[in-house]
Amino acid sequence: MIYLDNGATSYPKPPEVSETIMDVTVNYCANPGRAGHFMAARTAQEIFKTRLSVARLFNIENPGRIVFTKNCTESINMALKGVLLPGDHVITTSMEHNSVLRPLHSLKQNGVKVSTVKCDKAGRLSVNDVKKEITPRTRLIVMTAASNVTGTKMPVEETGRLALRNGILFMVDGAQGAGHMDIDVKKQHIDILAAPGHKGLLGPQGTGFLYVREGIYMAPFLDGGTGSRSKDLEQPVDFPEGYEAGTVNSPGIIALGAAVRVISKLGIDVIEEHERRLTEKLQRGLSEIPGIELYGPEDTYEKTAVVAMNIHGIDCEEVADVFNNRYGIAVRAGFHCSGAAHETIGTEKTGCVRLCPSIYTTEKEIEETIAAAAEIAAGR
Amino acid sequence: MIYLDNGATSYPKPPEVSETIMDVTVNYCANPGRAGHFMAARTAQEIFKTRLSVARLFNIENPGRIVFTKNCTESINMALKGVLLPGDHVITTSMEHNSVLRPLHSLKQNGVKVSTVKCDKAGRLSVNDVKKEITPRTRLIVMTAASNVTGTKMPVEETGRLALRNGILFMVDGAQGAGHMDIDVKKQHIDILAAPGHKGLLGPQGTGFLYVREGIYMAPFLDGGTGSRSKDLEQPVDFPEGYEAGTVNSPGIIALGAAVRVISKLGIDVIEEHERRLTEKLQRGLSEIPGIELYGPEDTYEKTAVVAMNIHGIDCEEVADVFNNRYGIAVRAGFHCSGAAHETIGTEKTGCVRLCPSIYTTEKEIEETIAAAAEIAAGR
């Protein structure tokens, strides 16, 4: 199978991931932070190692401000619902995933006001348009680092600077950015960063994290056992344990650490350039096929490894089915949990086919994909 | 290491668990319910198989009403916060874990009223005492199947019947019961069941589930992508996908299925009797040692595989340390995220040492543990 559904979850994982999960599960996995015995202590230690590795990759000063979650959606819910108060105004963009737009929508019922800045047809955001939306009640700007539909990179650093100068919190959804492009919370003035473990970070499913800068109060999301202050009925707000109630996914988190170290060793710039070259090749190849329409920026330096396309006259779901059934190529068709993004790029009626290479995708796989697309478009 | 911390997380797991995680991770793990390609379809299929296996074990008619979560704490939060409304009255017990008491405490701020029925010194609940607390506003009775501090089994079926007759919802926290004793949602009239995957069910950490009977409305807990109704900003309330926003822990859930099938094959009654015999042996052995005090029911038919104890004159944390450092026996000391339970049994000042055998614990390990306890108590 040629796997081009890395925007959903990355595959394959580096061997370090399955090896680590196996090692943890078979050899020592206990409950970290609960008991003092060797196995619990070792589990806690290894989880802390992941915290350090994640902190290093994103230039986070205090690893204790990293909360492990089950996925990016939980991270985003935890942050938005824990930080925003009635009366707060939030600015977001029209390229967001439902994991941002749906929590914001539900927060409207709590008196949170939301402005959605419209991006251009390629999914590009103008920071000036964001600036125009700022009011004295604006408390947060939240946006993705890169679109999950078109791969369009957002002006993260510029927006971060704008937020900083206006005393507004800046939150980034790293679902499609983490592991694919440089995310540096200091340089980019990111106050809150949510990310999945199982996409660009190459870790296992069931993992994600949320970074919240020191000084930001976040109401607890899950109430429950924290292994601390057991006699207190009030949920502790100590980082990170107050936000990691219940037993965490130790094998997953520890394996995520292994994956992040693989990434740090390879280098984000090397991964980014490999993926860009493949994306360039794929995009160029597809653009030469009659009947194929591409979405998002033409310039592959403006995007991550996501190619969105349609074949004239064929339903996107059918294209995906043929890719899969006839060629063994895994892609994702439809609306990608991002109705607003499809509206922005003009595919709100058709949806589109999404192809996402990863660091492990080869040139040959891209060539085969282009050849397959040409055959499908030619109706052969 | 002699691992007697199974109340926190079970260890070892059946080999099927690590084998399955490995197989899923290495061979086909994609994002279920998002794309139609072979890998995504296979992942979805295998997750559905887990739903079926869990449904069978707990006699749940509609597997679609099982929501997979990251742990029991998330399951409980999802249910309590999604089902209870301002003005509702809830009855719970003094033996609950903080994963029940803390969410209830935070719901008080939303106008939910809570009555806590005091259990006796052994942690036993009188159904009559529950009955006395019922008011016309009582909407839910929530309680654990068995205490995580003393193992005391709660009168689940009797309470279920009481709730049914009074038109009250009945919710069970299966954290210490699932996999250790018979839980049958039909026979016991359980409307909502929360359980972890990584304790008695022998699955991996990062898994849990919530069952909600058909006909009960639950507000969504996490808002985000569901792979369905992508253009809708309102979180879908379709079971299960509306409650499984974001990418699920596929390897974990599929491995949980493998674990549950191991349990079904062994038989809950066989597991329960094995654990009861070990608990009996452990309890009897410890009770004969001068200076050791035991908590909870003497009759091991009244409890799951949890033994709570203290050694006169030695701090419980120190006892646990000696168990670990000198004998390689893993136990858990302290308050076990259950301050109220410790108050009930009279250990609110001292805490206690908890020893939990599992289906994989041997008689020999129990004998060694008793011998170690005798040496510690004798001050040798």
From TrEMBL, chains A, B:
Belongs to the class-V pyridoxal-phosphate-dependent aminotransferase family. Csd subfamily. Its cofactor is pyridoxal 5'-phosphate. It comes from the Bacteria. It is an enzyme of class 2 (transferase). This is cysteine desulfurase. The keyword Transferase applies. It holds the Pfam family Aminotran_5. One of its GO terms (molecular function) is cysteine desulfurase activity. Keywords: Aminotransferase, Pyridoxal phosphate, Transferase. The keyword Transferase applies. Gene3D superfamilies: Aspartate Aminotransferase, domain 1, Type I PLP-dependent aspartate aminotransferase-like (Major domain). Residues 2-367 form the Aminotransferase class V domain. It catalyses: (sulfur carrier)-H + L-cysteine = (sulfur carrier)-SH + L-alanine. Its EC number is 2.8.1.7. PANTHER family: CYSTEINE DESULFURASE, ISOPENICILLIN N EPIMERASE. InterPro entries: Aminotrans_V_dom (IPR000192), Cys_dSase-rel_unknwn_funct (IPR010969), Cys_dSase_SufS (IPR010970), Cysteine_dSase (IPR016454), PyrdxlP-dep_Trfase (IPR015424), PyrdxlP-dep_Trfase_major (IPR015421), PyrdxlP-dep_Trfase_small (IPR015422). GO terms for biological process: cysteine metabolic process.
